[in-house]
Every structure is written in C-alpha cells, then in structure tokens.
Amino acid sequence: MEVKTRKRIFFALALGGLLLVLSLAVFIWFLSKNPNDLAARIFFNFFTAFILVVVFVSLLGIALLAFTLFSNKPMGGLNNIMTKSLNSVYPLAFFSAKLLNINKDLIRKSYIETSNQLAKFRLGEMNLKKILLLAPHCLQDRDCPYKITVDIENCRRCGKCPIAGLYELTIKYKAKMVVATGGTLARDFIKQYLPEVILAIACERDLASGIHDVTSIPVIGVLNRRPNGPCCNTVVDCKEVENVLKYLCGDICQLN
Ligand code: SF4
Predict the structure, then answer these.
(1) How far is the CA of 89 from the centre of ligand 1 (A)?
(2) What is the pLDDT along the chain (256 residues), one digit of tens a residue?
(3) Could you give the CA distance from residue 82 to residue 58 in angstroms, rounded to a whole number?
(4) Does the beta carbon of 105 sit less than 6 angstroms from any atom of ligand 1?
(5) Which of 140, 150, 168 to mutate to test the pocket of ligand 1 (most atoms within 8 A of CB)?
(6) Assigned fold of 125-248
(7) Mutation pick for ligand 1 pocket among 138, 143, 148, 177 (CB with most ligand atoms within 8 Å)
(8) Domain segments of the chain: what residues?
(9) Does residue 179's CB lie within 6 angstroms of at least one atom of ligand 1?
C-alpha cells in the first residue's frame, strides 16, 4: 500500500508541474495579444504553441505510464519510451515538490519506486546473465584497511560491514559486484562490464540521480540506511538485495 502511495506522489507532482508550465503558456499567449509589433506577436504565438505541444506529449507519456504501472501491464516496445517520459517529467515533479516544500527524499523515493517497476517491465523475460551489483563505498566499515574499490576480492569477508554479505550474494547468484566512490567511477564500471541490468544500492539522492543518468540499461535501486549519519558506515537490507537477485535470476517471479 505504501509503495502505491509513493508512486502516486510522483504522478501528482509531475501533473502539478505540467499545470504550472501550462499556466506559463497561457500567460505568454496573453502577452502576445498586447504587442503591436507583428514579429513579437508571431514569436509569442510560436513559443506558446511549442509549450503546448511539449505539455501535451508529456501528459500523454504520464497517462501511459500511469496506466502501465497501476494496471501492472507491460507495454512491450513502449517501455523504453515510457522510461524517457518518466525521466523528462522527473525534474518537473522535483520542482513542484520544492515549491510545495515537500521532503525531497520523498519524491526521490517515489521516483525510484516508479522507475524500478518500469525497469522490471523493460527486462521482460528474466534469467539474466550479466548482473552488476553497484554498491557505494560508504557501506564499507570506516576502519577497514582493504581497498575494495580497486578489487572486491580484497574484502576479507570478516562480517564487520554489509560488504561481506553482499559479496557472498553475488558469488551465489553469479553476479558481478563493484564498489564505487562516486558517479564517475560507477559510470566507468558500467562501461567496462556492459551489464544487462544494474542493481544499484545508494541513498535517495545518489540513486535518483544515477537512475536518471543511466537510461540505456535498466536499473533496479535499493536504498541504503544511514544510522551513523550520511556517508558513514551505512547499512543495507541484504534480504532485500537477495530478493532482487533471485528475481533477476528467475528464481522468484514477483518482487515485494
Ligand atoms: S567485510 Fe570486507 S570490507 Fe567490510 S570490514 Fe570486513 S574486510 Fe572490510
């Protein structure tokens, strides 16, 4: 129930953002009535028409997206187009959230959950062979001396941090695991490995911006928790990660 509510937040804010853009178009159209200069009038009319087309296409994208997600019916080849629609309205939804003083992490979570479901639709038939588990460096114990960002095999699996559990899961499910210190390194890992799907673990901000950046490969995001404050000894629910891995390997057919 909570997941559905979160997705609704994204759609409500995206629609609110489009309404704002529509109001802007009406305002510009109103201005276009005043200038005596014909060139200015043509310019204003052209600009209004352009905004109206953008709003119409975005509304169509949102309607299709909402129908697909809430009815749980994948749309075949249209899934990639819907990913583009989702990413293009995300900044608008984020802007609306800022205007309404809504917690930014709430809209990010909503976007991540919406995107996760769409990613599952894009993947279609499971049983994937190239799964990349992308973990953030902040999961590693702060005092651990081993350079796991260079090579995950440097982890001694002592169990002091979640890296050990995640590493064991990737061995079990034959996935590749990398630990990135930032977006640039993460992008390099993706370019090198060229996975079929990315299972990314991060905080709301990094996950939302990563998902927004990587459109060519489906990304399923799992949020980490920060009981020790941001970027320090963060934790993740390994059971949740295992469920996603099982799903991607075709061992279970439904994710919670
Ligand atoms: S589990 Fe691995 S990364 Fe974590 S503290 Fe132990 S050796 Fe370091």
Answers:
(1) 40
(2) 445 557 788 888 988 888 888 888 888 777 777 666 777 778 778 888 888 888 888 888 888 888 887 877 777 777 777 888 888 889 989 999 999 999 999 999 999 999 999 998 888 766 688 999 999 999 999 999 999 999 999 999 999 999 999 999 999 999 999 999 988 899 999 999 999 999 999 999 999 999 999 988 999 999 999 999 999 999 999 999 999 999 998 766 566 5
(3) 10
(4) no
(5) 140
(6) Rossmann fold (3.40.50)
(7) 148
(8) 2-122, 125-248
(9) no
Q: How far is the CA of 180 from the centre of ligand 1 (A)?
A: 15
Whose CA is closest to atom 2 on ligand 1? 155
Ligand 1 center from residue 193 Cα (angstroms): 23
Whether 156 is in the pocket of ligand 1, judged by its Cβ within 6 Å, is yes
Helices (H) and strands (E) in the chain, counts: 8, 4
Task: Write the CB contacts of 105 (distance below 8 Å, at least 6 apart in sequence).
Answer: 204, 205
Angle between helices 38-71 and 78-99 (to 10 degrees): 110
* Euclidean distance between the first and the last CA atom of the chain, given in angstroms as a whole number: 11
